[in-house]
Amino acid sequence: MSSTLIADALALLPSYLGSHVLVSVTALVLGLLVSLPLAIVSVRRPVLRGGLLAVTSIVQTIPGLALLALFYPLLLGIAALTDRWLGLKFSALGFLPSVLALALYSMLPVLRNTVTGLIGIDPAVKQAAIGVGMTPRQSLWMVELPLAIPVIMAGIRTSAVWVIGTATLSTPVGQTSLGNYIFTGLQTQNWVFVLFGCVAAAVLALAVDQLLALMEGGVRARKRLRVVLGGLGLAVILAGALVPNLARPKATYLIGAKTFTEQYILAALIEQRLQAAGLSAARREGLGSNVVFDALAAGEIDVYVDYSGTIWANQLHRSDARPRAEVLGAVATWLKDRSGITLLGELGFENAYALAMARRRAEALGVRSIADLAARAPTLTIASDYEFFARPEWAAIRRAYGLSFRTERQMQPEFMYPAASSGEVDVISAYTSDGRIAQHDLVVLGDPRQAIPPYDAILLASPRRAEDAVLRDALEPLIGAIDVALMREANLRATGGENTSPAEVARWLWGEIEKRNKK
Amino acid sequence: MTQAATIAFEDVSKTYDDGRVKALDRLSLAVAEREFLAVVGPSGSGKTTLLQLVNRLAEPTAGAVRVDGEDVRSVPPIALRRRIGYVFQGVGLFPHMSVAENIAITPRLLGWDKDRLAARVDELIDLVRLDKNRHRDRYPHQLSGGERQRVGVARALAAQPRIVLMDEPFGALDPINRDAIGQDYRRLHEDLGLTTVMITHDMLEAVLLADRIGVMQAGRLVAEGTPHELMTGRQDAYVDELIQTPRRHAERLRALIERGASS
Known about the structure:
The structure holds 2 protein chains of 2 kinds.
Chain A: H1 2-43, H2 46-61, H3 64-86, H4 95-119, H5 123-131, H6 136-166, H7 179-187, H8 191-220, H9 224-247, E1 253-256, H10 261-276, E2 281-284, H11 289-297, E3 303-307, H12 308-314, H13 324-339, E4 342-350, E5 353-358, H14 359-365, H15 370-376, E6 381-384, H16 392-401, E7 407-410, H17 413-422, E8 427-431, H18 436-439, E9 442-444, E10 456-461, H19 469-475, H20 484-495, H21 502-518
Parallel strand pairs in A: 1-2, 6-7, 6-8
Antiparallel strand pairs in A: 3-10, 4-10, 5-8, 5-9
Helix pairs in contact in A: 1-2, 1-4, 1-6, 1-8, 1-9, 2-4, 3-4, 4-6, 5-6, 6-8, 7-8, 8-9, 10-21, 12-13, 20-21
Chain B: E1 5-16, E2 21-32, E3 36-40, H1 47-54, E4 62-67, E5 70-71, H2 77-82, E6 84-87, H3 99-103, H4 105-109, H5 114-127, H6 132-135, H7 145-157, E7 163-167, H8 175-192, E8 195-200, H9 203-209, E9 212-217, E10 220-225, H10 227-232, H11 237-262
Parallel strand pairs in B: 3-8, 3-9, 6-7, 7-8
Antiparallel strand pairs in B: 1-2, 1-4, 4-5, 9-10
Helix pairs in contact in B: 5-7, 7-8
């Protein structure tokens, strides 16, 4: 089983590694281009220097993921402005926010080491430079910078390792990287993938670090050969990572996926259907709910699966629950009118939010519905994914039932179900299509006041694919073809502890769909 | 002084920290063409500041400094420094440059072409009695103290200056090297027709090398004259003490040698 997994992982390596190297190198070069001149300018200006070091130090304390996440909405805003005023369109997804955030991240070590290196130069040598008749600029280029280069190189090394490591976090903003292994693996409990991603990123970071160390040593000992060898090694890595990636034709259709197992499976299924129809397709996985929607509206991805209730709450800003058909109709109209997005159809199942408890615990407390929970909540702990507590549905549930829990915890969806069944938490926000509800012997609590809107899985296409008959035909067999039992089983297969990649589960799922169609 | 002064300090003062620290106090002194002037004094007496006024590494707070009759304030400092040789205290060789690159630095800044640079470097290595084959491509950390100092002198002479300023050039050397390099430099001073100002705290060195000696104390020139004049004339107590020390050393040395010979 795990040998096919490793084969799956290896097949993805050229694409992931290439993107990872490209984004890291671009960010590092950009960071250097900004921080080196800044350091040089600030060496003779203590106030500026203090300010710069303080700002870059603060940037360093922002968690990498948060920094990357911040750049997406920022760029989206800027892109909207430049589009309106200059007619200039650029993609706020993926490469650009990743490069900018990583470049910012890379600045501190270079800035600090360059300043330290320049300040640390023997004053007698600096005076000699002036005394023999150098201008301040000549002194900088002929004496100060050459003497500071070993220290500067050490800073560049630190930056390079940081950037290569942190670049794994650019997956959630839509940049393919070695982090795709880690995020996919984490979502689908595929530890081979997680490990593969970690090892690949670590090997890349170590190799670059050692080659830069070779160059640094060469500079220090004035051995040109070592500098050249180190540079050649870096060039080989760069070429080896980028050439296969550039040589491959770019996929025509990009399929988005959010951050959970079902989305990975469905994205893989769509990809396989498009490829079967002779179209070139690729996935952009691990995107946040709003990121993926904005990306579709902007045409940065072409197709993905969303849920009617999610659009209802997030985009229409409705917090009332209406009947299934009404929500679906309102969503389809709104999407077409507001964003030009086409609703290709429903897949046939619902993946609603629900509150769930361990069966034993629910029975012991006598809780059957969310209404029963209200009186108990102040002594109970609820756990949820990273989105739920910030979503309007949660606000609606709390309003409808007057819920107030003792503690609210956030965790990876994979860990919520075991946490509920082990009693570590009392209530979780479950997904109704999740196979683990049955697997962990949980019960879904009723919603008598209908606070939670319906969540039909719907296939959405970007505005520029609105008239794309080939796309529509390729995906037609999926419409109405997946009921909740089938989706639950698929989800369970992907996370059930047998190490199975989303692509494999998608192939199985297609097999099931075909079987049913034949009947 | 019969010739026109090559370097003239005219009533110069230099204060630091808004006048709280006086490095130089209304000092006047002239250095004639081809003269070898030694300036002697204790640490903090203002010797280095005086030297730095000549090539505008420091600017006087009051008074004027003239080089070849021209007020240095009217000369662009970069050009001024390139035509005046300077041997720095602690040598100040560039650690990332080879001996040849160090020596060639000022001519390179002046835009000499490659062939002329290479020829000049070889000439200077010979001049300061180093070995072209052995020393040319070494780095400063691969040289002995004496060799480094010779490179420092060669670098100061590279652009064929007529004036050389030396700030305690031989202070860190062992006595044998110090004497040898001092004598070698004195010969260069003669042969090349240089005007030299050398800072030292060692009166014996000043007496043995210089044509004329200025004695500084607390930013002022307290005595000046030829070694002979200073050794024989009556000065103030400090100058007498300073000047008599080498003489007493010499007398004790002679007595020791004579006693050794007679026993």
